[in-house]
Every structure is written in structure tokens, then in C-alpha cells.
Design a protein that fits this description.
448 residues; 7-stranded mixed β-sheet; Alkaline Phosphatase, subunit A; two-stranded antiparallel ribbon; alpha/beta
């Protein structure tokens, strides 16, 4: 790498033995004569879609007031530090998740339709059919300038095959991302594999075993290049670089700690690592932090994140919910079960709020990563007890450069959620004529 004091290319990489490390955006990457002190570098738009399964307890989710003066609901209370950076949308629907004569299977249709707006074909075989998802439409444009066009993450095992939901293939629940109508994009659950996709890996089980047994960090292999680069940077960039490298090392060490037991036990490593953090919260935080690093280093600008598969029977004893999630969601009005589901909904939002905190602490242009990232949080089922695909839980976060946040907006006549996806794509610089059952762009996202 040749470094000059004029400006650095945005795609500058630090290269070491077996490792390549992308850099965050630095002032030195702004072209000469367009200093950030005069005008901020044009923000890089990023998109993220976060899915929660089995519906929500709507009375606990939905704020009572509308407009800018709304009070966060009990479920959304953890977002209080970011109240002015979120927007709650009420009244959107996904009508294409209805049965249309296919019978039950609402859970599979819910996740398949969420980013596609297309009714999924009922099949147990390989002939699955949905539609191109919003994230992959975005990746075709935003991914042209990044090492990874998109990043797909999940927190629940998704190796199930065959029939998972009344004649529907498990594929429909295993992912929310579709590259083509017949090509679902696999979602990765293992933090080690994600880390190595971002920053390099060993190409064989032996190489991975050596990496796991080594106490060296990936950063050690780029020490000389890092020092050389640091000498060319201004004070602000040096601080930004130090913070970024510290974050990389922290995530790497947490991945290593989560896998130590595999090495210490002398187990034979398979072609793919097998361990993830045992606790759900630890797993979630680690995957969120990896995603934040991917955004910060501009390794990707588009992501999808599955907090749980539809029909998830995960239990959450750590928050006092020993019962399985999906079973509890069919509460039939039982107050105790409703309270348990509300705890799960709250727990998920708490973890998401921490992710927002991470993004808000990372400088990006004239703001933060949170300012320049459009995040959608929600699911394809509204009331989980009734399997309804109307009044969907929809939360927008970040994107202050593109949205008028800090509001609760209520829509009448149940506009398709695909209209929202069209609008967000346009704001991210990916104008699209149609998506699924869209009828036009959704109004009310920028208006006072």
C-alpha cells in the first residue's frame, strides 16, 4: 500500500499475512479542496432489516399518542435514548401473506413476504418461489462499491429442511432475503464465520485450528501497515482509527472466548466451526457488533438480521420466560401468557437499542453511523394469537439524514408494507418502480 498525504482512496485496505482489514471512513479519504471542515462528505446510505417472529403484543407495542409528541409504549421504552431517532409506523399490512386458498402456513408466508411483498408458493420441495427482496434490490446498487454486497445474519439454527409449516418448505422460515424469486439467500448464525468473512480466515480445518489455538490477533498481522498509516493521519483520524481497531480486537476476543471450550477439549474441528455463545443475549450482542463493524469499515452497506425464525420455540429463562415463544404467542387471552410474550418483545427491543447505541457512537461524515443508516425493525405478523398480517409492528430507526424521525405515524386503509420498502429504497439512492404488491411510495416519512 502506498500512502500519500493528499488523500486516501475510500477502499484503502491494510494487508497482512492471511488477513485484509478494511478501514472506516476517515477525513483523509475526503478529496483535497473539499475538506470536511467546510462541507461534510456526502453520507454513505446504509440499510438494515431486522425481523422478529411470532407477532407482538400490540397493546404493549403501539404508542397511544400520534405525531411528534408521542410517548414510547412499554415494549419500546428501551428506545428512550433514541426517541428522536426512531419512527413508529402503525397500520401497514402484508396482504400477500394471506392464505388465498392455501390453508394454514401463516408463519412461513409471513417471513417470505416481509421484504418481498409476494405470496410464497406452497411447496415442501426445492421449487420454492417468492420474490426478490428489498435488501437484494438495494445490494445490486449499494453493493457495487463494497467487498460484500450484503450481509445476512441470524440468531437461531436454520439448517432445517423439508416441511416446516403445513406444506411449506423450511426455506421460507430460514431466511428473509431472496436474491431471485427462486434463490433464497442463506443467513449465517456463527460469529466466527461472520468475522472471517469480514476480516479473513483460514482455508482449512487445520488453519482454523491454528487460528483458534493462537493468541495472536488479526490486527497483529497488519501492525506495520497500521503504524505507517497512522503517521500520515491527522489527530482526528488517528483517534477514529484507534477506536475502530479496539472494536475489532474486542469482537475478535469475544469470538475466541466463545470457542475456547472446543479447543481446550481437544475436539476435532469440522469443516465449519460449531460453537456460538451459549446465552442468547451474548450471541445477539456479538452479531450486532460484527454488523456495526461491517458498516463502519464499509465492508457492506446492506444487511438482514433474523432475531428468530417464525414458529420459534426458543425459551428465555434468563428473563423469566421458561415457556416456548410460539406456544405462548397463541395465548387465547390468558393474561399470564400475554405478559410472557410481552417480556420477549421487550427483550428483543432492549438488544436492538444497544445496537443503536453502538452505531450512534461511531462518527460518520457530519454525523454518526446511526444518522446515515436506515433501519427497519419488525415482522410479518401483527397479532400472533390471531395470525394476522395487518397492523404490523414496524419501527424505523436512524436515517436522520433521510427521514423525519421522532414521530408515531398512523396509516388508514392498510397500505402495503411494500410501499414503505419502495420509499426507503428511494431514500437510499435505489429508486425502484415496483416491489411485490406495492401501489406507490408511502407518504408521511419526511413530512412535518
Amino acid at each position: 500500500m502506498i500512502v500519500t498525504k493528499r488523500n486516501l482512496p475510500r477502499r484503502t485496505l491494510l494487508r497482512g499475512v492471511g488477513a485484509t482489514l478494511a478501514l472506516p471512513f476517515l477525513d483523509a479519504m475526503a478529496p483535497a479542496l473539499t475538506a470536511l471542515t467546510r462541507t461534510a462528505a456526502a453520507p454513505t446510505p446504509r440499510l438494515g432489516f431486522f425481523y422478529v417472529p411470532n407477532g407482538v403484543v400490540l397493546p404493549e407495542w403501539r404508542p397511544e399518542e400520534t405525531g411528534a409528541g408521542f410517548t414510547l409504549s412499554p415494549t419500546l421504552a428501551p428506545l428512550a435514548p433514541f426517541r428522536e431517532q426512531v419512527m413508529v409506523l402503525t397500520g401497514l399490512a402484508h396482504r400477500q401473506a394471506a392464505a388465498f386458498g392455501d390453508g394454514n402456513g401463516d408463519h412461513s408466508r409471513a417471513s417470505a413476504v416481509w421484504l418481498t411483498g409476494v405470496h410464497a408458493r406452497q411447496t415442501e420441495g426445492a421449487d420454492v418461489l417468492a420474490g426478490v427482496s428489498a435488501d437484494q434490490i438495494a445490494a445490486r446498487t449499494l453493493g457495487r462499491q463494497t467487498p460484500l454486497p450484503s450481509l445476512e445474519l441470524a440468531l437461531e439454527a436454520n439448517e432445517l429442511i423439508g416441511n416446516c409449516d403445513v406444506g411449506y418448505s423450511c426455506v421460507y422460515q430460514n431466511t428473509i432475503s431472496w436474491r431471485t424469486p427462486t434463490t433464497p439467500v442463506p443467513m449465517e448464525t456463527h460469529p466466527r464465520i461472520v468475522f472471517e468473512r469480514l476480516f479473513g480466515d483460514g482455508s482449512s480445518p487445520e488453519a482454523r485450528r491454528a487460528r483458534l489455538r493462537s493468541t495472536r490477533s488479526i490486527l497483529d498481522s497488519v501492525t506495520e501497515e497500521t503504524a505507517r498509516l497512522q503517521r500520515t493521519l491527522g489527530a482526528g483520524d488517528r483517534t477514529r482509527m484507534t477506536q475502530y481497531l479496539d472494536a475489532v480486537r474486542d469482537v475478535e476476543q469475544r469470538v475466541q472466548r466463545s470457542e475456547d471450550y472446543s479447543v481446550d477439549a481437544g475436539l476435532e474441528l469440522p469443516e465449519r466451526p460449531v460453537s456460538v455463545p451459549e446465552q442468547f443475549a451474548d450471541h445477539a450482542r456479538l452479531m450486532f457488533d460484527l454488523l456495526a463493524l461491517a458498516y463502519q469499515a464499509d465492508i457492506t452497506r446492506v444487511s438482514t438480521f433474523l432475531l428468530g425464525r417464525e414458529l420459534s420455540q426458543r425459551t428465555y429463562p434468563e428473563i423469566g420466560v421458561p415457556g416456548p415463544h410460539h406456544t405462548l404467542s397463541h395465548h387465547r387471552g390468558d393474561d399470564q401468557k400475554i405478559a410472557q410474550v410481552a417480556k420477549i418483545n421487550l427483550y428483543h427491543v432492549q438488544l436492538f437499542s444497544r445496537f443503536l447505541e453502538t452505531l450512534s457512537a461511531v462518527p460518520d461524515g457530519d454525523g454518526s453511523l446511526l444518522d446515515h443508516t436506515l433501519l427497519v425493525y419488525g415482522g410479518g405478523i401483527g397479532d400472533g394469537n390471531l395470525h394476522e398480517h395487518v397492523d404490523l409492528p414496524v419501527l424505523l430507526a436512524g436515517g436522520g439524514a433521510y427521514l423525519r424521525t421522532g414521530r408515531h405515524v398512523v396509516y388508514g386503509e392498510e397500505p402495503p408494507m411494500a410501499n414503505l420498502l419502495l420509499s426507503l429504497l428511494a431514500r437510499a439512492g435505489v429508486p425502484t418502480d415496483a416491489l411485490g404488491d406495492s401501489t406507490g411510495r408511502l407518504e408521511g416519512l419526511s413530512e412535518l
